[in-house]
Design a protein that fits this description.
Layout lengths: L1 H51 L19
């Protein structure tokens, strides 16, 4: 009877600890989801900004000349 009571008490402690771990896991999942949504929105803004304004205007016409100096 004493052994059964000790096992029951240990099981109750394990169940309580498992509930705490589950609650912490839910909080971590919620935080990760929030961070992911912030990251995705910031990434979308960066991509939109990159597409909106070109960094530099380049001319597509150019010429090549060979210049050799012979002494």
């Amino acid at each position: 009877m004493v052994v059964s009571a000790a096992i029951l008490e240990e099981s109750a402690l394990i169940l309580e600890e498992s509930a705490l771990i589950l609650e912490e896991s839910a909080l971590i999942l919620e935080e990760s989801t929030l961070l992911e949504s912030v990251f995705v929105s910031e990434l979308a803004l960066l991509l939109q900004a990159a597409k909106a304004t070109p960094i530099a205007n380049t001319k597509k016409n150019f010429f090549i000349c060979d210049c050799f100096y012979v002494n």
